Amino acid sequence: VAAVLLSCAAVSCGGQADLSSRSRSACVDGGVDRHTLAIRFAPVLMLHADEPYRVVSVFAVFHPSKPLVAYHVFFEDDVLLAGRGKSLDHEIAWVEYDPVTLKATDVFTLWHRTVLRTDACLMDAKASGQRPRLDVQWGQHGLLPHGWKNLVTARPRLELATHYELARYLNRLPKASARDRAVSFRGSYGDYITFDVRVDAADYIRADCVIEAPRSREYLNARLGETFLLKKEWPDW
Kind of pairing, strands 133-136 and 44-47? Predict the structure, then answer.
């Protein structure tokens, strides 16, 4: 594969510095460019049919010394706290891969401050062209790896049941968001944990949405034009 150089487009949002100097040569992992790798492992997001907010951006950040890519997914809002008081809601998933075979070796998701993984998600990705399938919680957008229902831990099932009860009455609560008043969920709990609308994260990842960096907060803030608190950089820190 021909060597390809990726450089993040120069961005100046609200006086933020140009970040193009942070981009690296993309000719890595057997000559495959970073953008191609980002698309190869991009998750497939499974949303509820009545999800009130759309996906607006997906950025792929490669670890500088490990075969690991973080997918930062941004929704236009959250039913409770939009991006911690801002106008976007931020979620994260990570895919670890073999740099020789270019196959996924593990998948992690951030679920409300906790990192989750399942063997089922990895096996499903291997059988589906290296694309992990992730369920997206209605309205609040915590990411759940495929097979999460078989996790032996109480998380996330206990929290989902609690969130469901809250979601039924959200329209009665004030919303700490820049957007409209919170909407409530109408349906059974079984419906609440049914995810059958497919959104392909790869459709949102352009070449200038891919970088290699140990930390991504400054880059994401500049690209999005707003300041938000990055929930987590990598699964282990």
Answer: parallel
